[in-house]
Amino acid sequence: MWGLLGSLLLLPILFTVAAPDGITLKYIEGTLKTIVNSSHPGSAGNRHGYEDGSVVRVGNTTHMVVSEMFGDPMWIRMRLAHWKTEQLGGDTGWERVGTLILDGKEMVSTANCTEVNDPRHDAALWSPILFEEGGTWFMNWVGYNCGRGYSNANTHGQIKLAKSTAGVGGPFESGPILMSDHVGAQSWEGKQGVDSFFAYKPPLRDNDLLAVYGSSGFGWPWNVGLARSKTGSIRGPWERLPLPGNPVPLDGGHTENPIVHHVTCRGEQTLLMVHDAVGSGGKQGFGLSSSTDGVAWTNSTIVAVPGGAEAPMGLLPSLSHPGAFTVWWNLRGRYDNLYVAQFELAVE
């Protein structure tokens, strides 16, 4: 009976509408800033810099949770941290609040590469994403096993969930595993397991909750697919949308670390997705796609940024430029820097 009911509940989502074309973000000259670098007081003890994460706003305080590549081996010895600023532009005043606390302990990876099939999946911690539900803050992140060398650095990723016992920055207590490559993995997914997960509500469907998630075999392609919460809650349980809809045909398999934000465009609710455009190596900018139902997405286009961009961590309405948006990101090869700029929403 549940299988039939689940199928019936899924059917409305699969009847998609055409995704909107001609939507882009245009860089506003002179707004590119470095918010954190290796000389920042909060970077003390961080050897290799920063990667992915998420940015949210509570009142006029902007919060960022980010993965820090603080030790060796690089990409494995990780910790998850909370930063914040009170400045409206989100380009100055950033301070490191501290390493995130989970179950009374700092969220620092074990870097245990001797047990490749460690059931804890805590060898490397990545991609902390904040999500508010019913007045409570949750965070999901990726826990990996690891091997030796780049092609085995982080394998069999699982998406874990934690619930805050206080505010946006925790402390947190452990919740369920949301997705893994052990249960329900599809044929396009690779040995990296599930490497990212970002939940969002599709427009006009307040009782539904979707997520875009990623996977790769280390090397092309880096794809993303769609999943759905059976309960409409971040707690899940979660199920992948069926093939052939997955992976989502965004840019030929060059998509990593997508994040999603609601906007109003052409008078209707629209979702914007920004993501790491892996194919360009961060040299040109980040990728952008849009959707009016959360399922059908436009082909990605590149949002050009001076000096390039990688791994967008935040997309929020700008507090310093009315009608514009603020985007935060890192840059491949220069992980010790985090950047921000303002962008106009353009519709052709």
Describe the structure.
The protein has one helix at 2-14, and strands spanning 23-27, 33-36, 50-58, 61-68, 79-85, 95-99, 101-102, 105-106, 124-133, 136-145, 155-167, 170-179, 196-200, 210-216, 222-229, 238-240, 255-265, 268-277, 285-291, 301-304, 310-317, 324-330, 338-347. By secondary structure, it is mostly beta strands.
Provide a brief overview of the structure.
The protein has 348 residues and is mostly beta strands. It is 4% helix and 47% strand. It has one helix spanning 2-14; strands spanning 23-27, 33-36, 50-58, 61-68, 79-85, 95-99, 101-102, 105-106, 124-133, 136-145, 155-167, 170-179, 196-200, 210-216, 222-229, 238-240, 255-265, 268-277, 285-291, 301-304, 310-317, 324-330, 338-347.
Spatial extent as radius of gyration: 19 Å
CATH architecture: 5 Propeller
Strand content: over 45%
CATH class: Mainly Beta
**Beta strand count:** 23
How many helices? 1
Written as H for each helix and E for each strand, in order along the chain, the element string is HEEEEEEEEEEEEEEEEEEEEEEE
Predict the CATH topology: Tachylectin-2, Chain A
Structural key phrases:
five-stranded antiparallel β-sheet; single chain; 23 strands; four-stranded antiparallel β-sheet; 348 residues; Tachylectin-2, Chain A; mainly beta
How are the SSEs placed, and which strands pair?
Layout: H1 2-14, E1 23-27, E2 33-36, E3 50-58, E4 61-68, E5 79-85, E6 95-99, E7 101-102, E8 105-106, E9 124-133, E10 136-145, E11 155-167, E12 170-179, E13 196-200, E14 210-216, E15 222-229, E16 238-240, E17 255-265, E18 268-277, E19 285-291, E20 301-304, E21 310-317, E22 324-330, E23 338-347
